[in-house]
Write a structure and sequence with these properties.
The complex is a heterodimer of chains A (174) and B (523). With 174 residues, chain A is an alpha+beta fold. In chain A, 40% of the residues lie in helices and 8% in strands. In chain A, a hairpin with a 5-residue loop joins strand 3 and strand 4. The chains are: A alpha+beta (174), B alpha/beta (523).
Chain lengths: 174, 523
């Protein structure tokens, strides 16, 4: 079970009681990361839950959309929780945390301001790890059909007969 | 004899590729009673198979076999393994093209004469001109059902067009309309009218856009003179001791190699695969590849200027609704060196869905400068620049012997660097494009870099003198009298216009030539 929103069979209260805060946005427990309000949770098997929490934050900091919930970023990166991908991700996130510590922070997730986290990302943006995560997000985030309506994008229209009678020329402000 | 044809039948013409060049040529030959075997690397997809989903469709239709890139163009950095967005399917890139169908302007056939010396450019005049091509353009426009020709009305303007038109007219531009499009504005030729669905690039599910896949190909097959072999991946062309080509080696979908004998061979694999095939067919007699005594095979690669401009407004546009490219401003297509460059450019409306906008708006970009642009996706309008780029000998397709395809053949390396004239023209087009959107209240605009190329031209160029190019005025190679080039790679120069109509016109003309040669017993 790696689907976001699974709660390992735990109730919301149990989930939260077994977790500890990871930064301000996430909590992590044994084998899962969740939002602080337990609106969603993501089980991890191959990578550490703290690593997944950091990866989700990193994803948001690369492509920040304030009207797109963390859940979609979690979906975008959950594929890294595999035996093949995990070692490189652990190394990459460790390097990210090391860069944060080099600037005097406890770790990446503990940095409060986005601009300070982005400074850290800029310092590693030429790394293969950063480019892999960024490149993966281009499809991982923006090709989620559930994300499209958040941007107003309507996807296919053939099944509805196109826009010939549904507003292809409805612009009214010119 | 009627199709299907035997592998040992050496009376057939073998056409390699089934797009705007090869697909049309195959049908036009078949209509003239010529026996044709068309070998197509891709599979067959028809409107019911097309998918209105950008990435899924890309996986279905795009040519994704390995290629490599070099040069200073940004595509080599952003999309190093994907120099072109073209199609591997029966019908070729006519499934993907947007339908813009423009004739060359008369002066563009003679670029060397009319532009004068341009340092670093390998300009040359076409051996043919606008007057000679006019009747072939007439036939091509009829075949494609081009709007604003033959009494066919223009398409209605969609939201993206209306923004473009209002801005262009506010700047004083006059030649602004919904284009000459091979997309039905009314039912025509047994095909539906455009339903303003978007997704023109993903194959038209209505069949409203002309594509060889469901017009020329089945019509050619219906004559009994054309056999199309799909998923037949050509490896090399063979020749006899007399120097004439006589067979084509290909691998079928089961990985089995075949040898199809041929009376003549017409190469139409688009401007990367066509020169690659000639180069990969090198022998002791032709050590530099077939038809390459000039050394020009693979050289003078052109891709049109391209680049895009997107504008963000304070109110919705919903640019994805409706025909993708039905909008054009042609005032800047003229020759006017006072602008600081020779040649001209067209501005054409363009829209991308959210997934492709994320990939192409600013490849490699991230952070809030990037994401706040996408946050305004619904309020965005878009246009594409199509301008004449300079042919340069060093912009070229070569064999990369370090990288092999799934059959073990060296892949094409595509090298491209902008000429100073290209940069000057693109800067001018960016400025005018952004001014168009500013004129209707854009709050922000983006000069977006070129995407992987769809207009691939010039790597087997047409020349009067055999020293200057690869093929003669009929697309026949200067070196080998029964070997023809039938796609955009025969373009001597690129002009400012989308190339498909010219490729189709040349293919019809070449079919007439080949059929004539056959009837005279000269081939």
């Amino acid at each position: 079970m790696t689907d976001v929103k699974t709660r390992k069979g735990l109730t919301r209260r149990e989930l939260l009681s077994r977790a500890v805060a990871a930064g301000a946005t996430f909590v992590v427990g044994a084998g899962y990361v969740a939002s602080t309000d337990a609106a969603w949770a993501l089980e991890t098997t191959a990578i550490k839950p703290e690593t997944m929490a950091t990866l989700i934050q990193m994803a948001r900091d690369i492509y920040p959309h304030d009207h797109v919930a963390d859940e979609y970023y979690a979906i975008a990166v959950k594929g890294y929780d595999s035996a093949e991908a995990a070692p490189a991700v652990e190394v990459g996130i460790a390097a990210l945390n090391a860069a944060a510590m080099g600037k005097g922070y406890a770790d990446y997730l503990s940095i409060g301001w986005e601009r300070d986290r982005v400074d850290i990302l800029r310092s590693i943006e030429d790394s293969a790890f950063f480019q892999q995560v960024r490149g993966g997000l281009v499809t991982g985030l923006y090709n989620q059909k559930a994300v499209w309506p958040l941007f107003g994008y309507e996807g296919e229209s053939f099944s509805k007969g196109g826009y010939i009678d549904r507003g292809f020329d409805d612009i009214n402000w010119l | 004899m009627a199709a299907p044809f035997d592998l040992n039948d050496d009376s057939v013409i073998v056409v390699i590729g089934t797009g705007a060049g090869g697909g049309v040529l195959s049908n036009e030959l078949a209509q003239r009673g010529v026996s044709v075997v068309a070998l197509e690397a891709g599979g067959r997809y028809l409107p019911e198979d097309y998918v209105n989903d950008e990435w899924e469709s890309f996986g279905q239709l795009a040519w994704l076999d390995a290629r490599t890139t070099s040069g200073d163009w940004r595509v080599a950095k952003d999309f190093s393994g994907l120099p072109a967005w073209i199609v591997k399917a029966v019908g070729g890139t006519t499934t993907h093209w947007a339908g813009a169908s423009l004739r060359f302007q008369d002066h563009e056939w003679k670029a060397k004469t009319n532009y004068g010396p341009v340092q670093g450019a390998n300009l040359l005049d076409w051996p043919i001109d606008g007057a000679e091509m006019a009747p072939w353009y007439d036939l091509a426009e009829k075949k494609l059902g081009v709007t604003r020709t033959n009494g066919i009305p223009g398409l209605p303007g969609c939201n993206n067009y209306k923004v473009f038109e209002a801005g262009a007219k506010a700047l004083g531009y006059e030649e602004v309309h919904t284009g000459r499009m091979a997309i039905n504005s009314e039912e025509n030729d047994g095909r539906s009218a455009c339903q303003q669905t978007g997704f023109c690039f993903q194959g038209c599910k209505w069949g409203a856009k002309w594509s060889a896949a469901y017009t020329d190909i089945p019509r050619g097959e219906a004559t009994g003179n054309l056999e199309v072999r799909a998923k037949a991946h050509v490896q090399r062309i063979e020749h006899g001791a007399d120097g004439r080509v006589n067979a084509v080696i290909y691998v079928d979908e089961n990985g089995v190699e075949h040898k199809q004998m041929a009376r003549a061979v017409c190469v139409a694999g688009n401007s990367f695969e066509s020169p690659r095939l000639l180069l990969n067919s090198a022998t002791e007699m032709y050590p530099d590849g077939l038809a390459n005594s000039s050394g020009q095979v693979g050289r003078n690669y052109m891709r049109h200027l391209t680049g895009s401009v997107y504008g963000v407004f304070d109110k919705p546009v919903k640019m994805w609704r409706g025909t993708t490219m039905a909008g054009i401003m042609q005032d800047e297509a003229r020759l006017d060196p006072s602008r600081g460059f020779v040649g001209g450019y067209e501005l054409e409306t363009l829209s991308l869905g959210l997934p492709f906008m994320a990939a192409f708006l600013d490849p490699g970009g991230w952070g809030r400068e990037f994401t706040t642009a996408l946050d305004s996706y619904e309020n965005m309008a878009g246009m594409w620049i199509v301008g004449e780029d300079m042919p340069q000998e060093t912009n070229r397709v070569t064999l990369n012997h370090d990288v092999k395809d799934q059959f073990g053949m060296p892949v094409a390396n595509v090298h491209y660097s902008d000429h100073p004239n290209d940069r000057a023209m693109r800067d001018h087009a960016y400025k005018q494009g952004m001014a168009i959107y500013d004129a209707v209240g854009a709050t922000r605009s983006f000069p977006t870099p070129p995407y992987p190329s769809t207009h691939n031209l010039g790597t087997n160029r047409m020349s009067e003198n055999p020293r200057d190019g690869v093929v003669n005025r009929n697309g026949r190679t200067h070196d080998i009298e029964n070997l023809f080039i039938s796609d955009g790679s025969q373009f001597t120069t690129g002009a400012a216009e989308n190339p498909t109509l010219t490729i189709v016109a040349l293919a019809i003309r070449q079919a007439e030539h080949i059929a004539g040669e056959l009837s005279r017993g000269a081939l």
